[in-house]
Design brief:
It holds the Pfam family 2OG-FeII_Oxy. GO terms for molecular function: 2-oxoglutarate-dependent dioxygenase activity; metal ion binding. Keywords: Iron, Metal-binding, Oxidoreductase. 23% of the residues lie in helices and 22% in strands. The protein has 348 residues and is α+β, with helices and mostly antiparallel strands. It has an eight-stranded mixed sheet. Strand 5 and strand 6 form a beta hairpin. The radius of gyration is 20 Å and the shape is globular. The model has no long low-confidence stretch (mean pLDDT 91).
């Protein structure tokens, strides 16, 4: 069987149970009412569905979303080819503390190593972020995507996928805004020159699936995450009603959507960013492709003014998204010995 590096072993209370509970009731939402041929009533029902899903689960799946199936097939094809390369070849595009874009296989979540390898790339080929998480450091740095030589079609497939995901993210953002009683485009302006990014995940088979996690428990720091996964499954969500971990069963051609910390703060806790994690499979490898929709680095995140009143005062003080992102990124690469930054640090 072989020994497992202790860096991968989860603390006893976080080790996954193998008698998995499949999630009953995670909403499956049909986005076809966004087509112009549908009525206002159809759109109102869709907005209500989105609101209920955000409030009760923080997660939902979408179908009839309009993303071409070919786009998804291409991203899976290039991911399989890239991760099949030798370690030496993949490490030619390694990310590090200076550039968090590219290949990495020693990522940490809450100071425990994840059983996976990843390839990260941004929506824009050049992105500006703070040089450090220190509040007094005003320096900015430019991140540039690193593209491998092989497979040669990887760059085009990744750029096409990220562009389709951004279109999808704006649709979802507008539905979320409407569900909060805000104008449809109220939140769009925060995403001008955004630093959204996408990831190729490869989870290799693991002979001790009861001890390790492909990705440890966490909440997403951005606004909205959109995930495509293959048919293997492994994503678990912490159910709000009872705190149990439940499996999100793969639905063919669906995308899984979850609200992140930014939406939780903008909504002043009406919608909650929910903990989730990824189990590993003892026999099969797994691929997934998340897109993280994030505001511009200069955005100050705080409860939306229109949602605040004397009966519902602001629950968070403003924080800078770029600094938050820089801090979170640092903890993914370097073991800090303390919990990484969380939105509850900004609670009033």
């Amino acid at each position: 069987m072989g020994e497992v590096d202790p860096a991968f072993i989860q603390a006893l209370e976080h080790q996954p149970k193998l008698d998995i509970t499949e999630a009953e009731g995670i909403p499956l939402i049909d986005l076809s009412p966004l087509n112009s041929s549908n009525t206002d009533a159809d759109l109102s029902n869709l907005v209500a569905e989105i609101g209920d899903a955000c409030k009760n689960w923080g997660f939902f799946q979408v179908i009839n979303h309009g993303v071409p199936s070919k786009c998804r097939e291409k991203i899976e094809s290039v991911a399989r080819k890239f991760f099949a390369l030798s370690k030496e070849e993949k490490k030619k595009v390694s990310k590090d503390q200076d550039n968090p874009l590219g290949y990495y296989d020693t990522e940490l979540t809450k100071n425990v190593r994840d059983w996976r390898e990843v390839f990260d790339f941004t929506l824009m080929n050049q992105v500006i972020i703070p040089a450090s998480p220190e509040p007094e450091d005003k320096e900015l740095k430019q991140l540039i995507n690193q593209w491998p030589e092989y497979p040669p079609e990887l760059r085009d497939a990744c750029e096409e996928y990220a562009a389709e995901m951004e279109k999808q993210a704006y649709k979802l953002l507008e539905l979320i805004a409407l569900s909060l009683g805000l104008p449809k485009t109220r939140l769009n302006g925060f995403f001008k020159d955004n630093n959204s990014y996408a990831r190729l995940n490869h989870y290799q088979p693991c002979h001790v699936p009861h001890l390790v996690l492909g990705l440890g428990r966490h909440k997403d720091g951005g606004a909205v995450t959109i995930l495509a996964q293959d048919d293997v499954g492994g994503l678990e969500v912490k159910r709000k009603t009872d705190g149990e971990w439940v499996l999100v069963k793969p639905t063919p051609n669906a995308f899984i959507v979850n609200v992140g910390d930014v939406i939780q703060v903008w909504s002043n806790d009406k919608y909650e960013s929910v903990e989730h994690r990824v189990m590993v499979n003892s026999e099969r490898e797994r691929f997934s492709f998340p897109f993280f929709f994030c505001p511009a680095h200069s955005t100050w995140v705080e409860p939306v003014e229109e949602l605040i009143n004397k009966d519902n005062p602001a629950k968070y003080k403003a924080y800078n998204w770029g600094k938050f992102y820089a801090n979170r990124r640092r903890s993914n690469i370097k073991k800090l010995g303390v919990e990484n930054i969380q939105i509850y640090h900004f609670r009033i």
